[in-house]
Amino acid sequence: MPEASAVASRVPPSKALRGRINAVGAAVFVLGLGVWELAVRTGLLDFAYLPPPSDVVVGLGELIETGQLQGALAHTLFVALSGWALAGLLGVAAGSVLGLVRPVWRYSMASLEALRALPIVAFVPVAVLLYGFSARMEIVVACYAALWPILLNTISGMRTEQRLIEVGAVLRLSRPAVLWKIRLPAATAQIVVGLRLGLSISLVLTLVAEMVGNPAGLGFLLVDKAEALQPAQMFAGVFVVGVAGIVLNALLMVAARLAFRGQLNAAGEGG
Amino acid sequence: MAGENGTGGTPLRGLLPLAALLVLWQLTGDPDSPYFPPPSEWFAAVRPLVEGNELLPAVAATSLTFLIGLGVATLIGAIVGTLVGSSRPADRALSPSLEFLRALPAASLVPVATLILGYTTQMKLVVVVLPATWPILLACRSARRSLSPVLLDVPRTLGLSRRHRATKILTPALLPAVLLGVRVAAPLALIITLLVEIVTRVDGLGSVLGAAQANFLSAQVYGLLTITGLLGYLVNWVVTRADNAVSRRMRGEP
Amino acid sequence: MTRSSEPTGHGTGSAAGTDSPGATNGTDGTDSISCEGVGVTLSGSSGALDVLGGVDISVARGEFVSILGTSGSGKTTLLRVLGGLLPATTGTVRCHGSVVTGPADGVVTVFQDYVHSLLPWRTVRRNVGLGIEAGCDRAERDERVDEALIMVGLRQRADEYPWRLSGGMQQRVQIARALATRPRVLLMDEPFGALDAMTKASLQDQLQQVQELTATTVVFVTHDVEEAVYLSDRVLVLDGSPAAIGLALDIPLERPRHQVTTKESADYLRLRHRVYEALGHDIGERARLGEHDHA
Ligand SMILES: Nc1ncnc2c1ncn2[C@@H]1O[C@H](COP(=O)(O)OP(=O)(O)O)[C@@H](O)[C@H]1O
Ligand SMILES: [Mg+2]
Fold this sequence. Notes:
The complex is a heterotrimer.
Chain A: H1 2-10, H2 15-20, H3 23-41, H4 53-66, H5 68-100, H6 102-106, H7 109-116, H8 123-131, H9 135-157, H10 162-170, H11 175-212, H12 217-227, H13 231-259, H14 261-266
Chain B: H1 16-28, H2 39-51, H3 55-86, H4 88-103, H5 106-117, H6 121-145, H7 149-158, H8 162-200, H9 205-214, H10 218-250
Chain C: E1 31-44, E2 47-60, E3 64-68, H1 75-82, E4 90-95, E5 98-99, E6 107-110, H2 114-117, H3 124-128, H4 138-151, H5 167-180, E7 185-189, H6 197-214, E8 217-222, H7 225-231, E9 234-239, E10 244-250, H8 261-264, H9 266-278, H10 282-294
Parallel strand pairs in C: 3-8, 3-9, 6-7, 7-8
Antiparallel strand pairs in C: 1-2, 1-4, 4-5, 9-10
Helix pairs in contact in C: 4-5, 7-9, 9-10
The complex binds adenosine-5'-diphosphate and magnesium ion (MG).
């Protein structure tokens, strides 16, 4: 605390600083955990399998000690990220074509919209049917799930403002230059939005695939611990999943800001 | 070209590739294929479910969970979002906790809910409500935040009671945001309803789908997939229609 | 006419208000940009709309011509046709002798909505360099960008993002971007239309100086009579439906012009009166002129 207040006295209460350090918010979070602990310990909350947070910490320790957590986390992250990366390549490429070439868009967009209406989770049984209980099945599911937001955001991002295209024409830019200097940068902020959504969806669907299909990774760990009636370890697993999601999203944003500073600033997402 | 820019204006000829694919599949597909049975087989495979009176109750169960879940999520999201949005300190105090809860993938809630509530309809509802609340909560929060202070002064100068302030000023002002949130939340709620059903096999369309897959009834899996698609399409259509109608009403158009 | 080295085809008559016989400026050899019999039919929501019909314009090298018209009269449409952004339904557009089919070399359009015309992800410097990245090496590009920025007085703000600048500055960035390409013809569509009066006046003078310096041909679209008369060598009034050139008026006011003295001179007021008359504003304008006469 003394450190924080020293910083606060030297630096004017800038927006960035206020955005980063939210002591009240952190306190409320901890307080919430404390209330949970008390409520369970005093029997106020009485569910057979609701552990208090302290037990969850112990469970987390056990998971780490036995190495189960590391293995499961590595598997899930590998699958979710591979599927997502594949979807990124496919989605940005196909989305660019669909967004830039009107005839292609005209003759396929309605098909895509019809396919999009199919709830993605309903594809998990299909994938299990086609690929069995394998990591490949998981990657296919993760990729399919992440593909949609990336594809749709790329398509709409490629709809560059007509005025900017005219600017390119007036300044006599070549077609590749218009694509590279105007259309792609104009679409970047929206593509990044698609990539972020895609990443979180691919994580969710990886977990589902692990719960009903491939017995591996965090998804399997969760159902396994639930069935083995080890709620503390299961809650620890849920906590890890939440943190993994936050960390992945943060890493992606940091990378995007490093790579596309101007574009994200312009879209008001520079942070 | 103007008509093509809105999403509503997607030209129908765009359905050609999908139609061509299905026709090709039908013509070249092997009826006994364990992986890619042709479309005509799908309907044949779903028929026993209809005749055995399994499909309709399943669709009804899924719809009910979806509707109740979405309704509860809308209520919670609108109320909490408005409260959090009306007070900066409350927002600051709660946002880290809310952010963490939001980061929990819906799938990871399933084992938690089953462990605590068992394999019950309440369990399904809890899992659906939590993730579906976020879009509504966030939309309401930002709409309440950006509400013009002048608008809030209006009831004060008119001497309206608190209740009238809520019903005559706040509700209509925030309704478009709620609807925007619902528009995002509705497809999500449907997906999560199916997700819970597929994972836990507690009645509904998802559990039938999961059972079909477990029994390697591939044609039935494709048939059920099509039915979930129709359900998804219906949900999108209704929500979009409702949203458009209400926002047109709010703007004073007929 | 201070720029006597630039033949405008109308001699150096000093009498204000010489009516030219037509909009066409008969000196073929020195024409910078011209159009003949241009008609444009656009398809709107309520069927086809004849926006322009039989427009003849010819602009000499180094000339500053304003196209004046009420809102919706077709000024933007005409400028887009001249800039090669919109094909004419009938008639032809020529630029330096060759027929225009798309944006021509050396012809740059400056749009009214600067907000949407600048690339928000590029700094001012990189926005200004956009048009010369392909043709120039780095050193030359930097030099030309600096030169253009100095001309519009934005050298200090080169590393800002445009959306951090005021509206007037953003429009100057767009003008600098055009200038960096060293255009022979500058087509400007109500470039100062969205700016406040003070900013507008200072940008008008800056544009005057830049044009003096570079001898660029300028076709300037505006709905502001004062602005048109103040800046131009010639004012063309667009009216009718479909619109055509109704009045073509030489503006032989001395250069450099000055916001106060020029606008107080009798010649300026008389010219302004004629333009207002052509636009159908005669009564109100006469009353105001009377005031001036009494003063
Ligand atoms: N893309 C278009 N399609 C149909 N009509 C248009 C289009 N652009 C402009 N118009 C119509 O052409 C007329 C002239 O427009 P414009 O050239 O923009 O006028 P100005 O720039 O003088 O205000 C207006 O009546 C306008 O409605
Ligand atoms: Mg215009």
